[in-house]
Design goal:
With 186 residues, this protein is mainly alpha-helical. The chain is built from 5 helices and no strands.
């Protein structure tokens, strides 16, 4: 039976308030996109119209407004309303962004708590592997010391440099193990 790989949950997976804010932001962004598209459409219609010789009322009295299109005044009012809506959407997005940032702290705590056990398991795995490395290094050093004590020229074996591990008894491996122990993971 194959076990599922652990996946760190998202902030909205763990915090319904955070998820609600994200959903609201997404809806507002969709509304903003739609508003911008509609504004452009109205602006294009207004730009494509010939300059008015007289008001919409005069055009209607002359029987020239029967083109079936919206009046210039109607388009201008619609554009004005769309621009006001765009400002309101911007303000709402700003408020949602601030609320998301405020909610990030409690949501983050929920995610961290949900991952604590798995994180500890993985830290312990690293520590156990490093303990194996430390034991293997001790075995290697023991053999190396025997060669040196007996004045054996063993360079043809290809001596390895293990300096990246730090000192044999107080190096990087030991510090990582100590840190994990101090944090209570092993």
């Amino acid at each position: 039976m194959k076990t599922e790989k652990f996946r760190v949950p998202t902030l909205s997976d763990r915090d319904p308030v955070y998820k609600d804010f994200e959903t609201r932001r997404s809806l507002l962004l969709d509304k903003q996109t739609s508003n911008t598209r509609e504004q452009r459409s109205v602006e294009e219609k207004l730009a494509a119209r010939p300059a008015a010789q007289y008001s919409d009322n005069v055009a209607e009295l002359l029987g020239e407004s029967g083109s079936g299109g919206e009046s210039e005044r109607g388009l201008t009012e619609k554009l004005k309303k769309l621009r006001a809506d765009a400002r309101d959407i911007e303000i709402a997005l700003s408020v949602i962004s601030r609320r998301l940032e405020e909610q990030r702290i409690p949501a983050n705590k929920l995610v961290v708590e949900a991952c604590r056990k798995e994180y500890g398991r993985r830290v312990a795995g690293v520590v156990h592997a490093l303990q194996g490395v430390a034991a293997a290094r001790a075995d290697y050093d023991e053999l190396r010391f025997q060669f040196e004590d007996l004045d054996i020229r063993w360079s043809t074996l290809g001596p390895m440099t293990l300096g990246f591990l730090g000192e044999a008894n107080d190096g990087h491996v030991q510090r990582v193990i100590k840190e994990a122990k101090d944090l209570g993971y092993v």
